[in-house]
Amino acid sequence: MGLGSFFKNLFGGSSKDTHSSTENKVKEEVDEAVFQVKEKASEVWEDVKDAAERAREKAKDTLEEVKEKVEELKESAEEKIEKNVDTVKEKVSERISKLDESVDEITQNLEEKYKDKEEDLND
Fold first, then answer.
1. CA 109 to chain CA centroid, nearest Å
2. DSSP category for residue 80
3. Nearest C-alpha neighbor of 32 from the set 24, 44, 20, 42
4. What's the rounded Cα separation, in Å, for the pair 47 and 53?
5. What is the DSSP string of 1-42?
6. Residue 63 gets which letter from DSSP?
7. CA 70: distance to chain centroid?
8. pLDDT at site 5
9. What is the sign of the dihedral through the CA atoms of 10, 11, 15 and 20?
10. Which of 14, 52, 58, 68 lies 20 to 30 Å from 76, alpha-carbon distance?
11. Average pLDDT along the chain
12. What is the per-residue pLDDT for 110?
């Protein structure tokens, strides 16, 4: 143990000890880096899940709004159709009445003319 031991003790031991110490430090740093990556990944995953949930809720709300608007339009269209049908019924009924009156009038005129002709023939 002479000069080699002196230098070994002076500079901190053997290269084996230095290598082992460096290996432990590197392993600790890698373990810390892996831990931090896992932590960050967990945070990102939670953010992604939250964003997806918000998007799902927004889509659900939007679809509900669209459904309500479609229902309103449907009801409005049904009301307009019903009103138009009633209007058409009234107009058709009025026309039929007028036609009945015209037919009655024409029939009466024809009967009078026929009667006059018949009287002329009988005279």
1. 69
2. H
3. 24
4. 10
5. --HHHHHHHHTTS-HHHHHHHHHHHHHHHHHHHHHHHHHHHH
6. H
7. 12
8. 63
9. positive
10. 58
11. 86
12. 87
Looking at residue 47, the DSSP 8-state letter turns out to be H
pLDDT value, residue 72: 96
The secondary structure of residue 123, as a DSSP letter, is -
Model's pTM, two decimal places?
A: 0.46
Name the token pair of 100: 């009945």
R_g over Cα of the chain: 52
Answer for the pair 27, 34: CB distance below 8 angstroms, yes or no: no
Per-domain residue ranges for the chain?
Answer: 3-122
Name the token pair of 111: 């009967």
Q: Computed from CA positions of residues 32, 38, 39, 40, in that sequence, does the dihedral angle turn out positive or negative?
A: positive
| Residue that is written with structure tokens 């080699």 in the block | 4
First to last CA, the chain: 173
Q: Which amino acid is at 36?
A: Q
28 CB-side CA count, 13 A: 6
